[in-house]
């Protein structure tokens, strides 16, 4: 089994889901600052995630879906996923973002499976709380290790692609570690660095 594991926000999707939701909900400035510090590794991911989601309290679900259904995706996202499929990779997305966004991405881009977080709601309104599978800075690495065991995928046959500090934990489990338009903390751990916003620039490294 060959595995290609992508981050979602700012890797496949052009932007950060939490920032786009906050813009729609009027808390963008506060959230952008917290996101910036978290992705640069200056803030604990778990704490920053809870702080950012708290600003969404009271947001109607219909507004959440409206934002998620109008995402822009990075150049080459769909084409690279198709390239991986031709080469018989299973394509997985790990996102510190939310089910609503990553499921919209799956419909648009066609990856096989995703693991992400869940925005809690009461009725049709967000409570400002969050839970899920990607709550901690180490979550992606732990999940990748489990998937490799389950799917009998090896280090040699795994490629991971991300942009931020919470993607670092995946890198020890993959032979090809791609930093895509990434923060310095991730570039330091990578063995493939892409600095132009075009995911198809990864293709030559697959051979």
Descriptive overview:
By secondary structure, this protein is of the alpha/beta class. The chain has 8 helices and 7 strands, in the order E-H-H-H-H-H-E-H-E-E-H-E-E-H-E. The chain has helices at 17-25, 28-39, 45-54, 61-68, 77-86, 99-109, 139-151, 184-187; strands at 2-7, 89-98, 113-122, 125-132, 158-162, 176-180, 192-194. It has a 7-stranded mixed sheet with strand order 4-3-2-1-5-6-7, with helices on both faces. It is globular, with a radius of gyration of 16 Å. The chain starts with a strand and ends in a 13-residue tail after the last strand.
Major sheet description: 7 strands, mixed
**Unreliable sequence segments:** none
Helix content: 25-40%
Quick one: how many beta strands?
7
Mean of residue pLDDT values:
95
Give the oligomeric state: single chain
Give the SSE string.
Answer: EHHHHHEHEEHEEHE
Query: Percent of residues in beta strands?
Result: 15-25%
N-C termini distance: 16 Å
**In one word, what is the shape?**
globular
Helix count, per DSSP?
A: 8
Helix/strand structural class: alpha/beta
Radius of gyration over C-alpha positions, nearest whole angstrom: 16 Å
As laid out across the biggest beta sheet, the strand order is 4-3-2-1-5-6-7
């Amino acid at each position: 089994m060959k595995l290609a594991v992508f981050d979602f926000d700012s890797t496949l999707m052009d932007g950060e889901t939490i920032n786009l939701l906050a813009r729609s909900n009027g808390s963008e400035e506060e959230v952008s600052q917290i996101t910036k510090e978290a992705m640069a590794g200056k803030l604990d991911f778990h704490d920053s995630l809870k702080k950012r989601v708290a600003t969404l309290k009271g947001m109607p679900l219909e507004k959440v879906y409206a934002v998620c259904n109008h995402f822009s995706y990075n150049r080459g996202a769909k084409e690279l996923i198709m390239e991986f499929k031709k080469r018989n990779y299973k394509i997985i997305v790990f996102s510190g973002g939310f089910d609503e966004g990553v499921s919209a991405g799956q419909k648009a881009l066609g990856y096989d499976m995703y693991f992400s977080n869940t925005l809690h709601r009461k009725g049709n309104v967000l409570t400002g709380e969050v839970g899920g599978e990607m709550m901690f800075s180490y979550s992606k690495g732990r999940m990748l290790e489990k998937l490799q065991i389950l799917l009998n995928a090896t280090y040699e046959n795994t490629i991971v692609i991300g942009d931020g500090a919470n993607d670092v934990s995946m890198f020890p489990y993959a032979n090809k570690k791609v930093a895509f338009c990434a923060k310095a903390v991730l570039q330091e751990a990578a063995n493939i660095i892409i600095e132009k916003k075009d995911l198809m620039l990864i293709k030559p490294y697959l051979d």
